[in-house]
Design goal:
By secondary structure, the protein is α/β, with parallel strands linked by helices. The protein has 18 helices and 24 strands. Helices cover about 35% and strands about 20% of the residues.
Length: about 500
């Protein structure tokens, strides 16, 4: 990620633990901040901060962008851009090649199952269903900025990670965080993992007892402003009419009603409320040892039956409401801690994908990669070359896993089969490149597409052939979620507060 090293370096420089001398002049900032606030917004892309700014408040996004240091064109320097790898890269300062989080899931050849990037069978959920398997950062192979803070302060600096989902909460937290919480899809309660804590603190139990989630689930999502004030494209839309207003109460009968709530503006509202309580009860920023608070906000709304792209009015309304929550959070923290004592870093995990249907309105090349059809043809091709057999063991999110056992037992050459597989897949429309794993593992690429793919490749978790799609082409799963594709990887980065002047790059 461009400028990511700078993010990590600036925060690390704040974490000295002894002998700091605070200036006697109150107008000067201290040698280190009391709190580093990291705001990570899933789906945030740079143009939102410009396109929607007329409807933003002065104290939210516009404050961070205009009064801080704003990098408008940062990005991730690897091919597979999605929340899991991106969360890990933000806090480790490195790429999936090193931190090991190559995707939301990867295939384990020993267990013959997909492994979630934060799943941990040795841990259990705290505050959730009894004996429910937990989650942790065990799969993360690098230390995080939070881990480095704990080391440099002899454990005195606090690290707290909050999100609506367990995956982002855990990956941002790292291995040694003091508190990690997310919202349960079934009950709406805030829960954790015994990897971090043994039981829920009293303040979390009290917060859960107030049933704020149930209150928000009884709300209606409707336009906050008059329709004419929005910037969305009213003439060319993927959907005939926008969906708002939406009565969220109709989802209460679902088995996981709060999974729906998380995809609406009210999920972020609830997260902000919980974050405010966490700051107070975890005593963040109360002493001269630097603490870190990581908050992962949703930035790509969706419902069970619809995907809202970057040009939908629902997306714009979502960000206008999120802007208000960030304004409230910043105001309360600065009142408690002081602007000069707090460093705020804001960035995104990835840009939101654009549906091919929308691109077609502007005659932009696009389409869907149908992996089922492609892999069926590939296996037929391999059988024509090597005989009958299930030569493809698994496919997942652009990763083709060949059947190593069958190849070895048949006395065929794995490298040759990787080459043949890549050559065949490269012929498909929409495929930008299909690269054999042996190439990525034995050659070094310093720039270009192969470099980005190599930085996404992990020798123990990636497939035998890695596929990247051409611009405008995407792959979806059964839930209509983009799981692979040439997604715009540009994201903004903002620094604001402690020792940060104004500027734009």
């Amino acid at each position: 990620m461009k400028h990511l090293k700078q993010i990590i370096a600036i925060i690390l420089l704040t974490c000295g633990h002894a002998g700091s001398i605070i200036s006697a002049q109150r107008s000067l900032p201290p040698e280190k901040p009391k709190l580093v606030l990291c705001l990570i917004i899933e789906g945030l892309q740079p143009d939102y901060l410009e396109r929607f700014q007329s409807n933003f408040s002065d104290g939210g996004f516009n404050r961070l962008k205009d009064q801080g240091k704003f990098y408008a064109n940062a990005g991730y320097d690897y091919a597979v851009s999605m929340p899991g790898p991106n969360h890990a890269s933000i806090v480790t300062g490195t790429t999936p090649r090193h931190h090991g989080i190559t995707s939301k899931q990867w295939y384990d050849r020993y267990t013959k199952e997909l492994v979630n990037c934060h799943a941990d069978s040795k841990s259990f959920i705290v505050g959730g269903l009894e004996a429910e398997k937990g989650v942790s950062a065990r799969h993360l192979k690098s230390s995080t900025i939070g881990d480095e803070l704990k080391l440099s302060t002899y454990g005195n600096g606090k690290v707290v990670s909050l999100s609506l989902d367990s995956e982002s909460a855990v990956l941002l937290a790292g291995h040694s965080a003091d508190a990690v919480y997310w919202m349960d899809d079934v009950t709406g309660n805030w829960i954790s993992s015994d990897y971090y804590i043994d039981w829920l603190p009293e303040w979390v139990e009290k917060f859960n007892g107030k049933k704020y989630g149930e209150f928000y689930l009884n709300n209606r999502w409707e336009l906050l402003l008059d329709e004419k004030q929005y910037q969305y494209d009213q003439k060319k839309r993927v959907y005939k009419d926008y969906s708002l207003p939406i009565e969220l109460s109709k989802y209460k009968s679902k088995k996981q009603p709060y999974e729906v709530l998380k995809q609406t503006p009210f999920g972020n509202m609830l997260l902000k409320d919980f974050a405010s309580e966490a700051v107070k009860n975890e005593k963040l920023g109360d002493d001269d040892v630097t603490d870190i608070l990581l908050i992962n906000f949703k930035g790509a709304p969706s419902l069970e039956d619809q995907h809202f792209g970057p040009f939908n009015i629902e997306m714009e309304d979502f960000y206008i409401r999120l802007d208000q929550e960030i304004e409230k959070l910043l105001a309360s923290l600065e009142e408690k801690i002081g602007r000069q004592n707090m460093l705020t870093v804001m960035t995104g995990t990835q840009s939101t994908s654009i549906k091919p249907e929308y691109l077609e309105n502007y005659n932009i090349p696009s389409g869907y990669f149908m992996h089922d059809r492609s892999l069926a043809l590939l296996n037929t091709y391999l059988m024509a070359l090597y005989g009958q057999g299930k030569w493809i063991e698994k496919y997942h999110a652009g990763q083709v896993y060949l059947n190593h056992e069958l190849i070895e037992n048949s006395n065929y050459n794995l490298i040759e089969m990787q080459d043949k597989t890549a050559e065949f897949l490269n012929e498909f429309t929409g495929v930008s490149a299909a690269i054999p794993a042996w190439v990525l593992g034995n050659r070094q690429y310093d720039s270009g597409l192969y470099h980005k793919i190599q930085e996404s490749y992990h020798n123990k978790r990636s497939g035998d052939v890695i596929i990247t799609l051409a611009p405008g082409w995407v792959e979806e799963n059964g839930k209509q979620e983009i799981v692979s594709g040439n997604i715009n990887q540009r994201i903004p980065v903002c620094f604001y507060g402690w020792k940060v002047g104004r500027g734009k790059s």
